[in-house]
Input
Amino acid sequence: MNRRKFVSQAAWVSAGSLFISPLLLPGCSAKDLFSGMNYEGRVLIIGAGAAGLYAGYLLKMNGIDFTIVEAGAEVGGRLGKLTGFADYDIDTGAQWMHGRHHILGDLAAKAGTMLTRDETALSYWFNQQIVDALPRDPFIFEGEALPDISFRDYAHDQGYGPEYDNIIEAIAGDQGAAASALSAYWNYKDEENWVSGDEDYKFRATYFDFFYEHVAAQVIGHVRLNSIVSEVDYTSDTVAVTLSGGEVLLADKVIVTVPVAVLKLEEILFSPRLPAEKTEAFSRFGMGPGMKVFLKFTHKFYSDNLLGGAVCAAYIDDTVGKVTQDHVLMAFVMGDQAAALHALGSDEAITQALLTELDLVYNGQASPAWLASSIHDYTDRPFIRGAYGYSTVGMGDARSVAARPVDNKIFFAGEAMNTNGHHQTVQGAVESACKAVIDLIDGVAP
Output
């Protein structure tokens, strides 16, 4: 796995001229892609996360009438920013740009955005000690021969004992999943088309700031906040979108960009009901608990990246690549571990559980050095309901089925709907939005 290495490097780099693969819809950031395509209808976009905002950005660029309705009180979805906790701004959601050979990498290059390349080596909590290398390589989840069983079961089948369980949990957690839920086969198959590059990058400022400045700010005047969609009626030629307060908005086409967990829970009703194959595809996605906890300390006593904790499988120095005098460690918690922390019921209890584990690992140094914590729990956050979509055992063609338009009126975008291998990423959400806008303008068949 090299897509989301928990790694960093302090040397600044500025992205240069980038190659954009034809697989990734080249020029989706350029108006000439839509040359010869004309559309005069009105479009309604549901959701102001990365996919919804980028869809609006493309529509505005091409003079198409649109409105974005967002259920929450702010834009960004799973992009977010924390200010005031430390002497630098912190990404509370998406944090790394994975590779540079994609739409957002091209945008960063053209803007001269300052990035930090992530290259710090991993260390491991293994058999009650910190080690720099393991007896066996745990990164075993690549290759056509993988069976459609969970990461945990596959590791056990390959002879990895319980001493590796929390490290396997960290690897699965990188995909937003518990090791018991993520399919070894389908996770690999979903990533076969990955061509963005193997390096990970952090933003000198924040991912949120980059995306807001270059995309969201261009369409913010078209966004209606606190507008919860309750029903989408596409019975007639005009689609009627009903908000929770009873207001009805009319559009010729609708782009749905809400997280797949919201679709699974049917928090938005469709009339007529979406095709059975579509709802069945949603049901095969995983999208589980996830949280990021930032722990501020008086000094650094911890490793840059440590995998293998029983409470949190991945601890990451958040300050690498930042201009700061502060010391902030991020606990990146997914799957069953996130569910367990969420169940504790309070920020204080979550903080204490993490400090107790860090005291164990670092010989009692954590609690005396702790200053503050900030917890960002996506587990049951309204209008999101989890971390990001992952491939379950039995996933099959669910991703491609879920992404298909319905009746040439309802189009779907978002990280989970990306079929080019870039699901679970901001660039993947953007690429899916580009595909949805092309399909909408081109008038694809259902």
Q: What stands out?
A: Residues 1-27 have pLDDT under 50 and may be disordered.
